[in-house]
Write the structure tokens for this entry.
Amino acid sequence: MTTPEIDADHTPTGSAAEDELVILVIRTAKALVDRLGAGRAGGTSSPMTVVHGLAARYLLDREDVTTVELARHLGITKQSTSEVVTALEETGNVRRAPHPSDRRARVLLLTDEGKARLESGRRRWQGVEDEWAALVGRDRLDVVRAALEAYLAAHDDDPPTDHASEC
Amino acid sequence: MTTPEIDADHTPTGSAAEDELVILVIRTAKALVDRLGAGRAGGTSSPMTVVHGLAARYLLDREDVTTVELARHLGITKQSTSEVVTALEETGNVRRAPHPSDRRARVLLLTDEGKARLESGRRRWQGVEDEWAALVGRDRLDVVRAALEAYLAAHDDDPPTDHASEC
DNA sequence: GGGAATTGGTAAGGAAGCCTGACTATACTC
DNA sequence: GAGTATAGTCAGGCTTCCTTACCAATTCCC
């Protein structure tokens, strides 16, 4: 323990395939998704998939999120978002309440049950993160976090054609 | 650096939603995929999707890759991999050649055209990476790369039930 | 040598996630 | 009040991937 000494220059293994960073991020994300999904298979409490988790996660501590705002955050269409929310609603994790000032909109609220389940999910995520930290060190992971946040902050807007502003 | 002394206070912004690292990785990956896919929409040269890119990327500089090995690398079933390879073959990027020593197997080889297209794709990835580097600095990105590689090295084996070794 | 079990590969059908297109109902602007 | 923009839903389809089922070549083992 205590800093596994990561060796930041790659010293290519010789054969082939030094993955690009972009590829690494995508592959890691897939590995994480698979990992998290595996837990779900065990009949866990989590809603359904990762998207549902992301959606619920976004709802936490917010009380004025509408479907379209969630859609923007998730980077998918509002229609797909609506499906996700419906699933979340049917499993008792989310409640649709009338919007206080806009009668066509509805705010999405986590139910108590939803909060509890999300909390369990978050603990699981935290576990993975801790494990990762044990591998490379907390400080490195902080750098990773900052870099990812910076990227997302820079282009958090590649909407898959909200398609409402098209002629 | 190399300080076991964990300094875990992130100074929460107060309002809400400090994303977990796991979430950040997944969201970044999606952003990247969307970004890369956007280029494809413009009638670009790239095969089809990110998976195809990952597959082609793995084939580069290797000459003895079979479908199942590729499947293992991609983390999907061999059936799905076969589909991917077929698509790659139909677009002239990959060629299936008989395996030198195993007559039931076939090796997957990038055609010259495939190599050219892959190269163009890699340049695009590199561009994204450069942009990111401009944002956070090369050195930080090197840390990110190392951390991702470490994670993948640790659990690169979550096969979605190869399902051939069951009961 | 001659099965039996493995392994590489393919084919057909289905589940899941997301998208486009079309349509209400409310809100904003003049 | 008319016209446009926005929140949301419904219907249908595409894509990706998985499951189940199946061949063909290989290896194990007697």
Observations:
- Chain A touches chain B through 67 residues (CB under 8 Å).
- Residues 149 and 156 of chain A are 10 Å apart (CA to CA).
- Confidence is low (pLDDT under 50) at residues 1-17, 41-45, 162-167 of chain A.
- The helical segments of chain A are 21-41, 50-59, 67-74, 78-90, 112-136, 138-154.
